[in-house]
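Throughout our pipeline, every protein is held as a single compact record rather than as scattered files. Such a record has a labelled line for the sequence and another for the backbone structure tokens. This encoding replaces a full spatial description with a residue-level series of whole-number codes. For reference, a complete record is included directly beneath this paragraph.
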Amino acid sequence: MIPPLLALGYYTEFLTMCNERIIERVIGKVVTVVLLAAMPLSELRGAIPVAIWVYGFDPVTAYLLGVLGNLLPVPILLKLLEPMTALLRRAVLFDRLITWLFAWTRRRQSVLMARLGAMALVLLVAIPLPATGAWTGALVAHVFGIPFRYALPLIAVGVCLAGVLVTLATLGVIALF
């Protein structure tokens, strides 16, 4: 027979071990969802459905984790795209390619940007389709020279709207396709 105080010690140790495993599992799921949302291909379109369907998060938690993860790389991208472009432009081949690509993009999309203004960036980020999202929004803001202080809030609004759309689509409230 185990003395009661000793049994209490084992019980406490057992509970601590169980709590640590539960916390590790929950933290692992949270980190997975946030990292999935931060990736350029999956973004919110992948993170929110995984959070709800695979990990069983409630829709509000899935939305918040998805939006947080999707917004994490945006300030870094907005700050690093200019120096990275300048570095690549040192090579003649890359300079020609970047100059052509920026001019081609501005020529094709300048009417849309002039007509919609800031809303064009919000809509680009908010529409949950392939090749749209926060990463693309940061790239477009760089190509069109939108300053950081304007681009970051516009992209954040787009990410929040996209999060709502993806969450509602995941729950079957709306059909996106």
Q: What stands out?
A: Residues 4-170 form one domain.
